[in-house]
Amino acid sequence: MKRMLIPIFVVLLTTSSITWGQSSDRYRYLVNATNEMSRIVGQSVAPDREALLRVTAQACNALSMLLEDGQFYEDLSQLDDQAPASREERDQLKRELDIFISSFMRIEEHALREAGVEERTAKEILWSASMFRNSIDADVTPEYLLEIISNLQAEVCQGARRLQSEEDSATRWATVRKWSFRIGGVTLIAVDVGGAAISAGITAPVAAGSAAIGGAIAGWSE
């Protein structure tokens, strides 16, 4: 049983350079915001207030655009139609760490990079995904994911105003770092549901799994 899924994932990996390339620009505004926020919060010293406010505003705008993007809901709905059929495969990804690393993580890294996510940012998102691996077999609906993203959008957009009056630089930095972590989960969702191969069904375990994990990351709170 442990090795039965490998051929499925190998086929997906060999075709992903074509399928992801066809739709790599669909959510570019979100990818750009994710890259920029990751660059700023990843600095070795606390970024200045202006830099943090700038990337927070960019993230706020990107999340707002995503929520208003009708194509995003259509993509989520397409994934929702296929998620139940992939539950067995996702359960295996949850149970078998070697399959999760060699298949899911490799495919996701390729997809993120094809979509324009920078190498360091992609590795950060994958690290987050590994932390939430136990969420991979959850069935999530488009409405559930949109609610999580909407809550994050409200927090980021309203929080931008609070950052202006926050005097402690470490607190500002920590706040934006947490948002960056959670927005990485949104990007994981958007990159996968934006793939042209989802309709073929072959990406169902990976795409449905990444939506579940991405939702868990985006909805994370201390």
Features:
222 residues; mainly alpha; 0% strand; disordered N terminus
Q: What is the average of the pLDDT values?
A: 82
Total DSSP E strands: 0
Query: What percent of residues adopt helix (DSSP H or I)?
Result: over 70%
Instruction: Extract low-pLDDT stretches.
Output: 1-23, 196-202
Rg is 17 Å
The proportion of residues in beta strands is under 5%
N/C terminus separation? 37 Å
- Counting helices, strands and paired strands, the structural category is mainly alpha
Tell me the number of helical segments per DSSP (H or I, 4 or more residues long): 10
Order of helices and strands: HHHHHHHHHH
Per the principal axes of the C-alpha atoms, what is the gross shape? globular
Largest sheet, described in full? none
